[in-house]
Design a protein that fits this description.
This protein is 47% helix and 16% strand. With 329 residues, the chain is α/β, with parallel strands linked by helices. Helix 3 crosses helix 4 and helix 7 packs across helix 13.
Length: 329
């Protein structure tokens, strides 16, 4: 956005707090960011406000925008791009979305059907990753190389990376490429990988890492879908704050945690979550992936997932829809 001419007021890396406990610990910062956002909107007087993902923050802004419009302080339309995952938990938020949002643009195929059940018309624009990865990458694959993607937040890396590194000791004949987030200090990784000759730290080349690898271990999130679109067989993992996880278990209604399995509505890839995410379980999962027949099964499922995501051009369709909302009465 900044490269396109937008003024960057806050970077997402300063706002991204995952988990219930983490949000509570950073509540003062979050509330301060909310107030600054409100001041900026009132000063700018936009024709349209585009809310992107980040529901804990953006749904509060949407509610505030409605009140400002009712009071005559604003006259903008409100577009939400990349739906909150209300299909996973807290479905009652559909009522505030129907009340506060003028247009919802969704990027996952099953989201349109979910909203239709609640009599709220949305537009499925397709997934923007298809514009970045329009075709599977057919690069030379190193049969002795494994990609490690432990996440892009410091709290994720600290929880997940030690288990990944423990497993590297069990595959001495393999080289491991560790994807470092450019937003995080290299010191976060270097201290953990010191002395490991078969682990290479690579920053800013996640797609290259995945395309070179025979298999990958990927933290649950958008990266699981990127890995599928590149065509690399993967194991999905996640480990977070124990209290946050126990709370989430009681309110989240999902069969799967990874986007790959959610889109396919089937266990395409193995998921190792919280207590199941151990070095022993991960070693066993990787050994399965290294069997050629299993790898080919996963790649075939990836092709079906790609077909479900629609056509390229998601960003253009989203932009056109936003302009139409802006100019409509």
């Amino acid at each position: 956005m900044e490269a396109a001419g937008g003024e960057l007021v806050r970077h997402y890396r300063d706002l991204a707090f995952m988990g219930f406990v983490e949000v509570l610990l950073n509540l003062k910062t979050i509330l301060g960011n909310l107030e600054q956002c409100k001041r900026d909107i009132l000063q700018f007087q936009p024709d349209v406000v585009v809310l992107i993902d980040y529901p804990g923050f953006n749904l509060r802004i949407a509610k505030w925008l409605r009140k400002q419009k009712n009071a005559g302080k604003l006259s903008c339309k409100v577009v939400y791009y990349i739906s909150p995952q209300i299909w996973a938990w807290h479905q009652s938020r559909i009522h505030s979305i129907k009340r506060d949002i003028d247009q919802m643009l969704v990027i996952l195929p099953f989201e349109a059907a979910f909203y239709q059940q609640h009599n709220f018309k949305v537009e499925f624009v397709g997934h923007p990753l298809l514009d970045v990865l329009p075709q599977p990458m057919h690069c030379p694959v190193d049969p002795k190389r494994i990609a490690l993607l432990p996440g892009s937040r410091a709290q994720e890396v600290k929880k997940i990376l030690p288990v990944l590194l423990e497993v590297t000791n069990r595959f001495p004949d393999f080289q491991f490429e560790l994807a470092a987030s450019p937003a995080l200090p290299k010191e976060l990784y270097s201290g953990l990988i010191a002395g490991r000759s078969n682990v290479q730290l690579v920053s800013g080349d996640t797609y290259g890492i995945l395309s070179r690898a025979q298999v990958a271990v990927v933290k649950s999130g958008t990266s699981t879908l990127e890995t599928a679109l590149i065509g690399t067989p993967q194991v999905v993992c996640y480990s977070g704050n124990r209290l946050s996880f126990e709370i989430a278990k009681r309110i989240v209604d999902l069969k799967y945690i990874s986007l790959v399995n959610l889109i396919a509505d089937a266990p395409v890839v193995e998921e190792l979550i919280q207590v199941d995410f151990t070095a022993d379980r991960l070693e066993a999962a990787l050994l399965k992936l290294l069997v050629p027949e299993r790898a080919e099964e996963i790649k075939a499922s990836y092709q079906r997932i790609r077909a479900l995501l629609g056509e390229t051009g998601a960003s253009d369709r989203a932009a056109k829809s936003i302009l139409q909302v802006t100019t409509s009465n």
